[in-house]
């Protein structure tokens, strides 16, 4: 397997480790912006695409800052390489005819929202079938300075609006799994702010209300919670489903109905296995760039 990486940061390293678990003989090359870029073990650095025989590349991982995704995808479209795109797909809805160009070239795409592969979320998707839902609450809060120990958090893309950062699209996982579980809402309203003591340019708080025909879903996101929490509540007629995403556990009326020793890190290999086997080999459409763009529209609602 030959894989091109564009954006060799911390998230790319997770994808590299996951692919090594799938195929120990995988070969990586990374398009670097500077000849002074550090070497990564097992990855060949290149500085222009012409240095590659692109017909030998099985797929490309796009994991550079979100603000550069549009340009990167445009550059790769003519080569008809399957694209594994790190979330969020874009930081703007102004993308011209990019989706039409991808469709015209029949380019295979997948946008990496790996929480769809977390056991507790997949369990809930099946558990709620044919059940009456009255209310949904999704919450994700953690402390941005703890995300990458040893780095100045104010310099990472998450903290900088000009790099495509901001809690409203950086933590797009919550909007994505709500969309995956319940479909497209009829209406979205939102409040976003960056008033916390983090003192960053990007939004560090977002609150969404999604209106469905029979219930409403609320999503709260922040960058400043010291005691990390990631949860989902689904209120049914008969009781409440409570999902702890950090523990990969589901309770119904206080009783555990699902739990797993796997965690979010395990989902990286699961989603890449799905991408290589189902999206590339079987042409299964799953969170394609078109679907991810619909989710992005919800995240940037009212901006």
TrEMBL record:
Keywords: Oxidoreductase
GO terms for MF: nucleotide binding; oxidoreductase activity
Keyword Oxidoreductase: yes
Pfam families named among the record's database cross-references: GFO_IDH_MocA, GFO_IDH_MocA_C3
Domain GFO/IDH/MocA-like oxidoreductase intervals: 124-241
Source organism, top-level taxon: Bacteria
InterPro entries (alphabetical): Gfo/Idh/MocA-like_OxRdtase_N, GFO_IDH_MocA-like_dom, NAD(P)-bd_dom_sf
Residue ranges of every copy of the Gfo/Idh/MocA-like oxidoreductase N-terminal domain listed in the record: 1-109
Similarity comment: family membership: Belongs to the Gfo/Idh/MocA family.
Name the record gives this protein: Predicted dehydrogenase
């Amino acid at each position: 397997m030959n894989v091109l990486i564009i954006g060799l940061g911390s998230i790319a390293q997770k994808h590299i480790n996951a692919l090594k678990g799938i195929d120990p003989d995988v070969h990586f090359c990374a398009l670097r912006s500077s000849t002074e870029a550090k070497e990564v073990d097992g990855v060949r650095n290149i500085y222009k695409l012409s240095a590659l025989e692109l017909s030998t590349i099985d797929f490309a991982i796009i994991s550079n800052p979100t603000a550069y995704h549009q340009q990167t995808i445009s550059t790769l479209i003519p080569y008809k390489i399957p694209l594994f795109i790190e979330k969020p797909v874009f930081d703007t809805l102004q993308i011209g005819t990019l989706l039409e160009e991808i469709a015209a070239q029949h380019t295979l795409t997948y946008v990496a929202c790996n929480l769809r592969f977390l056991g507790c979320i997949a369990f809930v998707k099946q558990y709620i079938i044919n059940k009456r839902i009255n209310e949904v609450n999704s919450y994700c809060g953690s402390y941005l300075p703890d995300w990458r120990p040893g780095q100045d958090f104010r310099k990472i893309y998450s903290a900088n609006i000009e790099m495509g950062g901001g809690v409203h699209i950086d933590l797009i996982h919550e909007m994505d799994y709500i969309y995956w579980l319940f479909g497209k809402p009829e209406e979205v309203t939102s409040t976003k702010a960056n008033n916390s003591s983090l003192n960053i340019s990007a939004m560090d708080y977002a609150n969404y209300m999604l209106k469905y025909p029979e219930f409403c879903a609320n999503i709260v996101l922040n960058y400043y919670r010291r005691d990390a929490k990631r949860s989902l509540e689904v209120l049914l007629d008969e009781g409440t489903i409570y999902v702890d995403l950090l523990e990969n556990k589901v309770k119904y009326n206080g009783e555990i109905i699902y739990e797993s020793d796997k965690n979010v890190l395990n989902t990286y290999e699961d989603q890449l296995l799905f991408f290589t086997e189902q999206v590339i080999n079987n042409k299964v459409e799953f969170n394609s760039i078109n679907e991810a763009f619909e989710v992005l529209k919800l995240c940037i609602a009212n901006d």
